[in-house]
Amino acid sequence: MLNIKSKRTKISAEKVNNSDQFEVYKKISEIGKSLITEPEVEKILISAMDTMIELSSAERGIIILFDNEGKILFETARYLDKQDLKNPEFEISRSIIEKVRKDGHEVFLRNALDESLFNKSHSIARLKILSVICLPLKHKDKIFGVVYLDNRSVLGVFKEKNFQFVKEFSDFISLAAHIAFEKNKLKVKIDSLESELRSKYSFDLIIGHHPKMVEILKLVSQISNTEATILIQGESGTGKELIARAIHFNSHRKEKAFIPINCGAIPENLLESELFGYVRGAFTGATIDKTGWFERANGGTIFLDEVSEMSPALQVKLLRILQSGEYNPVGSCTIHFTDVRIIAATNNNLKELISNHKFRDDLYYRLNIIDMNLPPLRERKSDIPILIQHFLRNFSNQYHKGDLRLSKRTEDLLLDYDYPGNVRELENIVLHAIALVDGEVIEPKHLPGHFISENKIKSSNLELKKFRNAKQRMVEDFEKDYIINCLKVSKGNISKAAQMAGIQFANFYGKVKKYRIEPFEFRSTNT
Ligand SMILES: Nc1ncnc2c1ncn2[C@@H]1O[C@H](COP(=O)(O)OP(=O)(O)OP(=O)(O)O)[C@@H](O)[C@H]1O
Ligand SMILES: [Mg+2]
Questions:
Q1: Residue nearest to ligand 1 atom 30, measured at CA
Q2: CA 489 → CA 147, 485, 506, 511, 525, distances in Å?
Q3: Which is the most buried residue in 45, 313, 346, 457, by most CB within 10 A?
Q4: Who has greater pLDDT, 27 or 327?
């Protein structure tokens, strides 16, 4: 065993002594790259250590990082053959490491047993350590770790050249470890802020770690306790009502009512009397006075879902309440006053409706004091696994199903799906599976039929999908170029450009937005 080791060391030493600068630069650049891409400090330090051992003729190497009190925070200990060194505390010279940590000076020994400073060290004698290099890792003159390299089988193996290289390289490691450490600290801080945010504002029911969701939760925490009107936009099932509830229950209005009203589900004339109430005789069948939701929600919050479905006449009434808190019940001339916070939601493109004169722009600006856009689930797919776990836990508790898990194939199918119905659809899929499963494992056969067949078609038609995507991209490229050309000719005038293209204004405007084209940039374009 010993022979094998010393043979290895010898080969490595020769290699190192002959190694050209190019090899060194290559290794350094690899570590540099890993610094940018690799989030774990440990992995960066392991690869730095392996490189140093390989290029310095060392047999073993250790990087130790200390906290402010000198306690070991972290250590990477490696052998020449890229294996971890087991129990490094018994394998290295503590006295050398302690000295370097305390004094901050490097130690370079060709034969440790001959050195008066160290030859009384028990560890050096016991371990028969011959050659040692030990250097401090510093950031702004503060020692936060050491690099230690030794060799027990070749006397004087480290040459001046090796020492200089290790010295240079350890500066690099200092920087790498420092950056990686800071990155880690930042991550820990972000994680703890995120969980603080969640517990403080009881966002436990809102699942989402995707940066877009974290941004939204931050915004919710900032604006909940203000009086600002909020417009939440997002496709169906993205959680608009869930967010509206979180805003209400984190505001000072939380003791009062939260009233969700789906404007699209109530016929127009009924909606008016539901919202504002009516007086006796206001219409046939109005035999008594009735209070409306705006009065009942006084002091609380009204959530107007599908606000775009409101008729123009109701939009005017809503605008009046937003501006002054005043309204008249149906059939009454008496002015009533209410103190209600309004949160509105829509899954339609309000700007398009405004340009089609279906939605008032003054109401839009009044509602849109704070604008929240909830991303569709397909744009935050990384949240799918935690959402699944959340729904599995909830439903299996509710239906006493015990611990449930997904088979690999089921998981793949669920991760690969696009969820046009967003989180609501995923929730229903899990519920469906829980209703059907009889063991612990959810298999594809427990998923809804349409879901499986869609996925089957999807996998068998992968090529077709590729083709469709390519075609879609080409169409989009063409459309974008065409719109830009029209805008160039019309010098940024959208209606002229739409006329020129023979497309309705709203449709043209929608495409300008879709492709993020800025018409004003063409105002001074010469064609
Ligand atoms: N981030 C989330 N975490 C956990 N559950 C969610 C999340 N988003 C949505 N849900 C769940 O999905 C379902 C649909 O959510 P919600 O009703 O809030 O969506 P919506 O955007 O208002 O839909 P619609 O436009 O159809 O009214 C609800 O059961 C809700 O609890
Ligand atoms: Mg809703």
A1: 239
A2: 66, 6, 19, 17, 8
A3: 45
A4: 327
